[in-house]
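Note to self: user wants both folds in one dump. Writing first protein now.
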Amino acid sequence: MSTARAVADDGGSGLASFRRNVWWGLAGTVACVLGFAVGDWVLDPAEPAGLRALTGLATATTIVACGVLLGRLIRDEAPSAGWLVTACCAAAVAATVPLALGDFGVWSLAPAATISVLVMFLPVRRAWAVLGTALVVLPAVGLSTALATGEPDVGHAVWMPALMVLAFGPAMLGMLRGWQVAARLDDARRLAGQLAVADERLRFAADLHDIQGHHLQVIALKSELAARLAEADPARAAEQMREVQQLAGDALRETRALVQGYRRTTLDAEIANASKVLAAAGVEVRADVDADRAASLPEGPRALLGLVVREATTNLLRHSRATRAAIVLLPDGAGARLTIDNDGARPAPPDDGRGGGPAAADDGTGLASLAERLDAVGGRLSWDTDDDRFVVTATVTG
C-alpha cells in the first residue's frame, strides 16, 4: 500500500504540511506507545540490568527503524531492505526478552507496531490479510509460552497481543488512508486545471481553424487561378491577386480580433471563474456583486477589475492556506470598490508603501503592475494584511 505521490512543494494547498502531520502522527504513535510501555519495564530494577539494557536498545532501534520506514512510505519510496531487516530483528529482540521473563503485557508491543508499519507497503487486501494473520499468530505465541512456563493468567497472555494488533493496525492504516485520499484529491485538482487549460487551447484552435480555414482555402484557389492567367490574361490575373490581397487582409483582421477577444478580461467572467476555482480548491467563497454597478462601468476600468480578481485569486491559491474568501463589488461614489478578502495569509515582508500590503504577496510584479495601470485611469489598488487575513482593495471611477 503506497501513497499516491510524494509532494515536495504543495503549491499553497497545504498538502506538504499534512504529509508532515501524518508522519508525526504515525511515528509518534509508535514512539509514544513503545517508549512509555516498554520504557517503564526497562526501568524496573526488579528485572536483570543486562536484559533491560538489551530490551531498551532494541526498542529504541525499533522506533527509529519504523520512523525511517514511515518516512519512505509517505514520500512514496520503496522500503529499504536494510531498515526492514533492522526493524524486524530489533522488534524480535524487544519481544523475546520480556516474553522469556514472563512479562506478557509488554512483549507484543514491538512486533505489533512493526507489523503495522510493514503492512502499509502492501496492497490493501494483503495488508488486512497480514494483520489478520498477526491477530492469530501473536496470541498463539503468548498462549503457548504461558502454558509452557506455567503462567496462571493465560487469558492475559492471549488478549494483550490481540489488543496490540487491533490498536496499532487499523489506526495506522486509517491515517495512511487519509493521506492517500488527500494526495489523490490534490492530483485530481491539478489534473482538472490542466484539462481546463487544454480545453481552452482546443477551443482557441477550433476558432482559429474556423476563421483561417475558409480564407486560406479560397486564397490558395485564387492564387492558383492567377498563376494560370498570368500569361494568357494579365488583367484577370491582377484582379484575382487583388481579391487574394483582400482575403488575406480579412483573415488577418479576424485573427487579430480572435486573439484580442481571447485575451480580453471580463469582470463577470473572472468573478465566476474565481468562485469556481476557489470552491474546487476547498475554499468557501462568498461573492457579493452589484451587477448594475458592474455593468455601468466603462469597459477599461471593468477589464482592470477583472484582472485584479484574477491576480488576487492566483495569489490566494499560491501564497495562502485560505479556507474562506469574499469577493465584494459595491458602489463607491461615481465608481465602484472591489474587495477580495481571504484568511490563511502567510507572514510577509513589510509593505511597499501602498497601504500596508506585502509586496511579496504577488512575487513583486502582479499587483504592483495593476496598481500602476489603475492609477493611470484614476483608480487605486491597495493590499493589506491583518493577522491571517489578506485584503486586496481596488477602486475605479465610473
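First done. Writing the second protein, which came from a different request thread.
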Amino acid sequence: MRRTTAITVACMTAAALTMTACGRGADAGGSGAGQTGAAVSTGKASGTITVWAMGAEGDNLPKLTKDFETANPGVKVQVTAIPWDAAHDKFTAAIAAGKTPDVAMVGSTWMGEFASSNAIDPTPAQIDKSSFFEGAQKTTEVNGTSYGIPWYVETRVVYYRTDLAKKAGFDSVPNNWQGLKDMAKAMQTKAGAKWGIGLQAGGEGSWQTVMPFAWSEGADLTKDGGKAYNFDSPQLLKATKYYQSFFTDGISDKSAPATPTTEPDFASGKVPMFISGPWEMSAVEKVGGAGFKDKYNVAPIPAGSAGSSSFVGGSNFVVFKNTKNRDTAWKFVQWLADPKVQAKWYSISTDLPSVKSAWQDPSLASDKKLAVFGKQLETAKAPPSFPTWEQAVKGLDTEMEKITKTGEDPAQGLKTAQQQADSIGTGM
C-alpha cells in the first residue's frame, strides 16, 4: 500500500489535533447540509495563486500548471511541494494562523476535519459533480456539502500470476468469495506457491483490504442516519470471518513482515496473488523484469451479495476560505477537472483520473489492466468524512491484527472496535 500508506501515516499525526473539531454541531462553521459556494465568474483567470501539493504530486505539478498559465496570460501559479509526513501539521498550523495557501491538494480523509474547522470553501455549483466517480465525489462531501474536487483516484483489485493460475486450474479469478479462496488454496497445492494470497495481517491500514469484502455485502460504516460509527454490523462481521479464514486455514501468512515484500514475493511466485492499488503495476513489472507484464493480470474484487465493491482513495483539491484570489483559485481547480487535463496529468504522474470521461483517452483506454481499475471505481466506496475517522479506525486495525494473528473471535473484536469508536465520537 505504498502511496496510501504515506497518506495514512500523515493522517495519523492528526490524532491529537482532530479533537479541536469534536463536539461541533452538524452546521459547524456554517457548513450546513447542501451548501453551495458562490459562483465563479466567466472569462480568463488573473493574478497569482499559491498551491500546496504533497509528495511526487507536488514535485510534478509545475509541469502541468504551465498550461494553465499559458491559457490565462498574466496568471502565476506558485506551487510548494510538501512531504506527506509533514503535511498535516503544516496545514493545521496554517489554518490556526490564518495563513493558508489559496489552493491545496489534501488527503481525502482530512476533509471532515478541515470542513469542520471552517477552513475550506464549498464547491461552486458550476462544477459538475456528476462527472466524477461517485465514490470519489463522496470523499469531498461533509454533511451533504461538497468541498473541492476529487483530483486523482485509486482503488484496489486482485493481482494474480496468470501462469501459476493455469497450473492451479484457473484461467481467471472467480467472481465470488468461495471461488477466490479455492483459487488461492490451489495456488499452494497445485502451483507450488508458499502462500495462496497475500493479505495484510491487521495493523495500520488493514481496514482498506477488509472493507472491499464488507462493502460487497452491503456494509455501511455509519448508522443512525450517518451520525455514528458502525463497526459491528452483520455485513462487516461476515467479511471479517471470511478474511480471518485465509489465515486460520494457512492460505495467508499471519507472520508476514510489517514492511511488505509484495513485489519480490509476487515475481518469485512465493505469493502469487495479492490485493492492492494501481501503483503496483509498475512496481511488480520493475522487479519481475522483461516480459513479466505478460505473466500477471488483475481482476475485480469478487462479489458478495451486494455485488463487487472496493476502497476508493486518492487526493482532493480544495480552495481555502482565506484566499485573496478566490475567482482564480476556483478556476484553477475547475481546470484540473477538465478531462484533457486529467489525461495529461496521468501521462505525467500515472495518477488515475477522477473524471470518468477522461478514461476514454487512448493512453488509458488501450490498457486492459487499467480498464479493470476503471470498472472497479464505478462501485468503489470511501470511509465516512468524520473528523475523528483516523482515530476511530485505528481501533479497528488493532482488532483486525488480533483476529488474523491470534484468532480472536471476530464478533468480539468488532464489538471492541465499536466501543472505542463510540467513546471517540464522530467529531461532528
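Dump finished. Worth passing along: Residues 2-155+312-377 form a domain with the D-Maltodextrin-Binding Protein; domain 2 fold (CATH 3.40.190.10).
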